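[Amino acid chain]
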Amino acid sequence: MCFKNLHKDKLAWLSEFSHIEMMNCLLTILDIYNVVLIDKKGEFVRYNQQFKTFIQSGDYHFADQGCIADVFKELKEQHLFASILSKAEHNGIWSGRLLINSSDFYKAQVHISRVSGSQLHNQIYMFLFFKDEAKSAEEKWKELAYTDELTGLSNWRKFREKLSAIKKERESFGLLFIDINNFKEINDQHGHIVGDKLLQLCSNRIKEVIGLNMHAFRKSGDEFLVIVEEVEKTEYVEKKIKRRLSGDFLIGESAESVSVSISVSIGLSTYPALGQDEETLIHHADMSMFKDKMRKMERGISCGD
């Protein structure tokens, strides 16, 4: 994409606009796609509203200083990222499928082109992509096998696989063990339909809280796990989840709705400080969660199972 010499043809009037104005126009026109402009390092330069909506609706925490490698799993490998940009430079465009870096199993159709212009001091590339709805049989099987049917979160099988993978990728990370207090009483009093709906609402709120480099799972019953890749953010995420999962939940339609008041107990564990294997990490998180529950009971908060 080059804007120079526009005055020589019928589009001469376009030369009156700056490169930034042209980019803003382009991002608006392509608002049906996810459009991101990045520099050579992969850092965001500009993006359109569609991309921002995409980021905020998934397993991400939007930040202006984000990086394209946070969106696509393969681009975390520097040599692959450099190779793709090199091909875009040489051929003018690179097209292919890249795996979205989230708890879902799907790929995106991606088109990468070089944005050139004499006023650009740093080389800019445009990523244009959309979710690839055409999943292979293997991808569909994995999605079913690794997804909890009730809540839509990743399940215990996926947790074990992710934990194994992340231990190879990072030197440290945090683990949160979440338990809904008095869930059995809610089930007994209001029935399993209300209980199931409450689990779905809690799952949705957990997904809203967790951001980039965080992964939520349903362990079993009313128990959830969250992996926080940036270990220093673990306590912050714990407090944020507690706030979102404490209070009244309105379940059902209009006159038949039921108001349920809940709180949660959360335990924290970190790798490798509090465990280097799955069993030890979960044990420490479970014990920490139990202590949190006991502290609530001492303050007169009902936390029965």
About this structure: The chain has nine helices and eleven strands. The chain has a mean pLDDT of 81. The chain has two domains: 6-136, 146-298.
